[in-house]
Each structure stands twice: as C-alpha cells, then as structure tokens.
Specification:
Layout: E1 6-12, E2 16-22, E3 28-35, E4 47-48, H1 50-67, E5 75-82, E6 87-91, E7 101-102, H2 110-118, H3 122-129, H4 138-152, E8 161-165, H5 166-174, E9 181-183, H6 184-187, E10 193-194, E11 199-200, H7 202-207, E12 217-219, E13 222-227, H8 230-233, E14 238-244, H9 245-252, E15 261-265, E16 269-276, E17 287-293, E18 298-306, H10 310-318, H11 328-334, E19 343-345, E20 363-365, H12 373-398, E21 406-409, H13 416-426, E22 430-433, H14 438-450, H15 457-463, E23 466-470, H16 476-493
Parallel strand pairs: 1-5, 5-14, 9-12, 15-21, 21-22
Antiparallel strand pairs: 1-2, 2-3, 4-7, 6-8, 10-11, 13-14, 15-16, 16-18, 17-18, 19-20, 22-23
The structure holds adenosine-5'-diphosphate.
Adenosine-5'-diphosphate binds at residues 13-16, 266-267, 310-311, 313-314, 326-327, 329-330, 410-412, 414-415.
C-alpha cells in the first residue's frame, strides 16, 4: 500500500450526501456535500429519491477527486456509512427503484406495528432483534413497499427484485451492479436480523411476508465487499468497510470498550454506548444493536435513538421560516436569557427513546403574549438537550458505568449554545473533536484498517484532536430545574393522534 495516499469515505446521511478524502494522518483533504431533497407526501411520511442519492454520490466522488487533483490509483479503499433503516426495492434488470425509499423517520406503518403489538409479537421481536417494535425500523417499511408493488405492478417478476437499506443500494451501484450485500450493523437495524446469529431470521421474514431471495447478503462491517466499477473513476478500488452512521461515529470516537459512549447530533440524536462482545439487554427501552464486526469478532452496543433534533432546526428554517440558516440559532438563543416559559416537544415523527410513542406529535406549550421568535428558537434547542438527557438517564439506569463524559459530533454539535446547555442539563462535560464528521471518519478508519493502509486503531484514535470541552457551569440550576416542566409538556403531547 506504499503508493496509496488516501481513503475515500462516503457518508450518505438523511440531510445530505458527502464524499470526503482522508490522508494517511487521518486528516480531511477535501470534501463535497450535496443536500438531499426531502419528500413529504403525507403528514408523518418521508421519502427519499434513491436515484438522487446515487447520482449525488457518484457526482460527489468524481468532484472530490477532481477538485483535489487526486490520482484515483492513489486511493487505497472506500469506506461507506449511511443513514440507517431507510430502505427501498429496486429492479436489478433496469437498475430503477420500484418506489421512493421510505426514510427512517416515516410513520406510515404505525398501524401495522399496533396490529403486531395487539397480536402479542412485540416481546419475541425484541428478543430476536434487540429492537423495540416500531415503525422506525425497516421491516414494516419493506412490507409496505412489497404490498405497494404487488398492487401497482402485479406482473413484476420477484426474481428481479432486490431489497436493501441505503448501503446495499449504494454498494450495488458502486460495484457496477455486481454485489448485493449489507453489513451487520445496518442489518441489525432492519428488525429482520437475529441478533444472536447475525443472519436474517426466517420466522421474521415470514411474519413480514418478505421473500428471502430479495434480501442482501449480510457481511462483517470491515472486510472487502467488492471493487468499485472502473467506469466510475477510472480505477477499481475496494469497498472495505460499511457501517450504519451511528456505529461509524462510535468507531471514530474510539468507543471500543464498555463504559465509552458518544452522542451524534444530526437529523436525530443517537446516543450509543459500547457494550463489548456480549449482547446487553436494556430495561429502559434502549435498543441492543451491533456496533461493528470483523470476520473474527462482533461488538455490540446499547442505543437511545431520538428521531427529531436537527430536523426540528431544519423545520424552523424550511417550514416555519423563522431562520434562514441553522447556524443562526446560536446567536438567537444568546439574545434571550430563557425561553420565557415556552416548552417545545419535538415529536414531529413521534417519539423514540425512551418513550417509543408513534402517536405523539409536536407541541409548543406555555406560550404567552410576550413570547418572541428568539424564545421559540431557544425552546427548540433546549428540547434537543432535554431529549438527550432522558436517554442519558436511561443509560445510567441500565449500565454499571455512570456517564461521566459525553463525546459529541454531528452537524448540530457545532452549536455552542446547544453544547453548553447540554453540559448544564446533564451536569457532565461534553468533549467535541476537531473533525465533527465522525461518521465519515469512522468509515474511513474502518476501510483503511481493513486494507492495511493503517495498522493501529488506537494510534488513529489518540491522534484525533479535541476542539473544545464544555464544562457544566452557572446554567446548571435553571437547565436542570426546567427539565421537570419540559417532561410535563412531553406527557401532554403523547398519544396525540388516534
Ligand atoms: P445527518 O447526518 O443526519 O444528515 P448532519 O450531521 O449532517 O446530519 O447534521 C445536519 C443537521 O444539523 C441538520 O438537521 C441541521 O439542521 C443541523 N445543524 C447544522 N448546523 C447547525 C448549527 N450550527 N446549529 C444547530 N443545528 C445545526
């Protein structure tokens, strides 16, 4: 690998798709980002155009290579990390998706989940998959897509249909339509994988009426998945790691031992705690999931998934038009001392951990005549921190290692107001790294280590630089006192639609 200079990391997120080149020292050489169109066909539904995802991915790859004048032969490997649970069906003969991809936040299958709950299936699903029965995961979304195709394209030949999460779709396209596979961390989020065996669970495939032959092969997160098509950039480069985005961030933060955990502030917030090589079961509605695997070893994690955090900031921008840019929220929050009694419940897609209430909806409570734009914006940011606090409390109840430091990353972790308020609300310090794209960095580390571009994970981790530590400060008392009122608001918004 002496001639290799770079690892190419592809981070296909909910908000947008990114291609980043990392050099041998783990530094970012260059990146290209394209925001992804969000389609809202009905309240509570969210779709992505999978062709747009692939076109933006291939364009970003070509652009990042051209802009940085990189010889593609100098790229040692590609690492891929994706938004999880979002899934689609496509026709392998045409390469066309059969329907838009259904995004993880989409609630259209809430009623199907209710029927499964009423039929007493929640406990067995949780035992097999480690997940709480919810519309969030891929299984009911795939079942919905299959029904839709059966109704709208009754003549379809199911031998030509492929199913997958976004990693499987991207891998199939990257490899010139050759490889239909997924990694175990993404597969563990489908609600179709048996957590003990690491393979598709026949009884779950049957329960959701999903033909086994349309599912991708499950492979270890780190290892060769295939070679990228020469036509893409003029070189065949191994795709050597695939992770779910949250698992990639956990890997980048060096959380490889029990007691280490991180929180990523993106579209949603995902607090993930490493639990080592054994599966830990939660008593507080956290998920048991795969962290990552190699051929030799699988690591597991406990996770608190919060659906709407950065997404509520996007909504302030695109829906309410109260702001023009997410970054503006920081100065708006600093312009007022508090929220003037306003509490926001960010249940725009129901509530995830620790409530798992698909029927909760967003709410502002406590509004009086003096409330201004800044108070509304501040209440939205404070609600992000309070949601994370609920999950940290759950982790503390589940684990022998009380949370004493939170490593953070993701787009919204740039917001200094949010980070300070979070440290105040939790009463523990937050550590923010210089490279906030921990997701892309984790996929790069995995791919580089898998092909021998790097040989020392611990060294990569210790070379990462800390940007800032946020210590709990004078804001602790009000931040912690107001948590009870915010919880009261959450209680009002629960089980809203029936
Ligand atoms: P994802 O991987 O889920 O697409 P990212 O980690 O790229 O998300 O982060 C994008 C999210 O972060 C968006 O929801 C955006 O609103 C939010 N965001 C970006 N910058 C800021 C900021 N300065 N303050 C608050 N939120 C921000």
């Amino acid at each position: 690998m002496t001639d290799s200079k770079y690892i190419l990391s592809l981070d296909l997120g909910t908000t947008g798709n990114r291609a980043i080149l990392f050099d041998q020292r783990g530094n970012v050489v260059g990146q290209v980002y394209q925001e992804l169109t969000q389609h809202y066909p009905h309240p509570g539904w969210l779709e992505h155009d999978a062709l747009e995802i692939w076109q933006d991915t291939s364009n970003s790859i070509q652009q990042v290579i051209a802009e940085n004048k990189v010889n593609p032969l100098e790229i040692a490997a590609i690492g891929l990390t994706v938004q999880r649970e979002t899934c689609l069906l496509w026709d392998k003969t045409t390469g066309q998706p059969l329907h838009k991809a259904i995004v993880w936040q989409d609630r259209r299958t809430a009623n199907l989940c209710d029927r499964l709950k009423a039929a007493g299936k929640a406990a067995i699903i949780q035992q097999k998959t480690g997940l709480v029965l919810d519309a969030y995961f891929s299984a009911t979304k795939l079942a919905w897509l299959i029904d839709w195709v059966k109704q709208n394209q009754p003549g379809i030949n199911w031998d030509n249909v492929m199913a997958g999460t976004i990693d499987a779709w991207a891998l199939w396209n990257l490899t010139g339509k050759q490889v239909h596979a997924t990694d175990v961390s993404n597969a563990s989020r489908t609600m179709l994988m048996n957590l003990d065996t690491g393979d598709w669970d026949e009884s779950l495939l049957e329960l959701f009426n999903i033909p086994r032959q349309i599912m991708p092969e499950i492979k270890p997160s780190m290892g060769i998945f295939g070679q990228c098509d020469r036509d893409l950039i003029g070189a065949e480069i191994p795709i050597a790691a695939i992770f779910g985005d949250q698992q990639a961030a956990l890997y980048a933060h060096g959380c490889d031992r029990p007691g280490l955990l991180k929180c990523t502030y993106g579209t949603g917030c995902f607090l993930v705690a490493q639990t080592g090589t054994t599966i830990t079961r939660s008593h507080n509605q956290l998920l048991s999931t795969v962290a990552w695997s190699t051929k030799e070893q699988t690591n597991y994690a406990l996770e608190g998934a919060i659906f709407t955090t950065g997404a509520s900031i996007q909504w302030l921008r695109d829906g309410l038009k109260l702001i023009t840019d997410a970054a503006e929220t920081e100065s708006l929050c600093h312009q007022v001392d508090d929220t003037n009694g306003v509490y926001f419940v960010p249940a725009l897609s129901g509530l995830g951990a620790p409530h798992w209430d698909m029927k909760a909806r967003g709410a502002f409570l406590g509004i009086t005549g003096g409330v201004q734009q800044e108070h509304i914006v501040r209440s939205v940011l404070e609600a992000i921190a309070y949601q994370v606090k609920e999950v940290v409390d759950a982790v503390n109840q589940d684990s022998d290692h009380p949370v004493s430091l939170l490593k953070v990353d993701g787009g919204a972790a740039k917001n200094n107001f949010l980070m300070q308020f979070q440290a105040d609300a939790l009463g523990v310090p937050l550590e923010r790294p210089k490279v906030l794209d921990a997701t892309a960095q984790g996929a790069a580390f995995g791919a580089g280590l898998a092909v021998g571009f790097w040989d020392n994970y611990q060294q990569l981790i210790s070379d990462r630089q800390v940007d800032r530590v946020f210590e709990p400060g004078a804001g602790q008392a009000p931040a912690q006192d107001n948590f009870a009122m915010w919880s009261k608001a959450v209680a009002r918004a629960k089980n809203w639609i029936e």
